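Subject: two folds for Thursday's group meeting

Dear M.,

Sorry for the delay on this. The cluster queue was jammed most of the week, so I only got both jobs back this morning. I'm pasting them in the order they finished. Each block is the input sequence followed by the predicted structure tokens. Could you check whether the formatting survives your parser before we put anything on slides? The first protein is the one we discussed after the seminar.
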Amino acid sequence: LGPTMRRYAASFGDQTSTEVQIVLRGDEDRRYSKTQEIVMFRSIQELMSNAAFHNSEQRHQLQISIELILDDDNMQVTVKDNGKGFTYEEEETGSGGFGLKLMRERVEMLNGTLSVHTAPTQGCEITLSIPTESVMFE
């Protein structure tokens, strides 16, 4: 997951003219279950794409930072951007978009968590955490 994320972040930055910073902590080459790696990678892809899409008018000023922590107990990623942010109410069905709802469902199927911190004009910070022992299917 680590080397794949480094390559993806570099490619994404080049293709979108967005500044992308990535910090990897832990064993970059550690392997997890296919399910865990796919859910984490696809979630990061979607969060980066959403940031670029919803901030397209300021893409050249957009900065995305990714912190990926890989250890024996947990996979965790925090994706932050300095974009326009949005109003998010977790309790409201569909608030924050259908994509976030589906992402939360996928992460929760693996006994993980997803947290969203955002507000209009304040950018966005989303953290996903998946315990590594949580695999329910392969």
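Second protein, same layout:
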Amino acid sequence: DTPQILDLLKQYHAKATFFVVGKQVQEHPELAKRQVAEGHELANHTFDHMYFNRRSSPEVIVRELRETQEAIYQVTGKKTYLFRPPGGYYNDRMIQICKKEGYLVVMWSWHQDTWDWNRPGVAKIVNKVLNNARNGDIVLMHDHVEGKSQTVDALKQILPELQKRGYRFVTVSELVE
């Protein structure tokens, strides 16, 4: 769904941060190039969409981070300092490894998890975002959903409404600054 999402973001002059899976960057380099060319930010989301848990070795965590960083750099010439763990699973060891590797671990605003990956219905996604919108929110949405995604149809309603309410859409780096 990435091309459709990029088209909508462009239509509403919105910028986004795409936490990308390294393997997907390698398989679809044209999308990563387009994202960067259109002013969006790419950030690390592991190479294989690996869920880090207490049993994840430091070597595996470092490898996942570095392989994704390399994939992003090879395709776009850009490096990232942001990381979002798949599923939001984290622990102290993972955080420390990420810091040592130069990453800021970023989560989403807990009241803005749309669960779009689970296809709850366009109306539920739209209502979740619009009913909870606050300045500084990081809204969690996915551009790759198994089956029929509802994210694009939800964004068609969310973006114009939030824009009408005066919200601006910026990258996570811009938000952090």
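Two things I noticed about the second structure. The first helix runs from residue 2 to 11. The first strand starts at residue 17 and ends at 20.

Cheers,
T.
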